[in-house]
Amino acid sequence: MSSEKIFNFVVDKDNLRVTIERSFDAPRDLVWAAWTEAELLDQWWGPKPCRAETKSMDFSEGGRWLYAMVIPGVGKKWDSKSFLKIDPKDSFTYRSAFCDENGIVAPETKSSVWVNSFTERDGVTVVTNVITNDSLERLELMIQMGFKEGYTAGLDQLEELLADLQK
């Protein structure tokens, strides 16, 4: 295990992209499970006091994760992640879009494509997210909504969950 943490967060407006790289002191199999199993995702996805609540999860190419971000005092904000490509334990790609509670995405809704890659060395797993947005407007909205802070808080919760799962 390594004590040197990797965390990079790069916004590239020219290419409508955000790239995040984060290391975790956990084996790739466990990190992969935390990213692909609803019961684990619900424990870390989203910053506290918000929490994720999965309605359905079909982790397969062509499948989808439909969940609500439950926001105290606001209610549920729905999101759909449609899985485009899965290379088990190495990477998976999905299209992410806000939707209604039935997973219906309004035609005018902008989305993003996430490529999530997992590499392990000496018990440390590095997760790289490359998020490409449909428009500069969507990228700027992501940033204005506090994506960096919220996502970082979620990744911190993932780190805590992984530590607990290894006890």
Overall description:
With 167 residues, the chain is an alpha+beta fold. It has an eight-stranded antiparallel beta sheet. 26% of the residues lie in helices and 43% in strands. It contains four helices and eight strands. The chain has one domain: START domain (Alpha-D-Glucose-1,6-Bisphosphate, Chain A, domain 4), CATH 3.30.530. Helix 1 crosses helix 2. The protein starts with 6 loop residues before the first strand and ends with a helix. 20% of the residues are buried.
C-alpha geometry: globular
Work out the radius of gyration: 15 Å
How far apart, in Å, are the first and last alpha carbons?
Answer: 14 Å
> Could you give the order of the helices and strands?
EEHHEEEEEEHH
Structural class based on helices, strands and sheet pairing = alpha+beta
Helix content: 25-40%
The major beta sheet can be summarized as: 8 strands, antiparallel
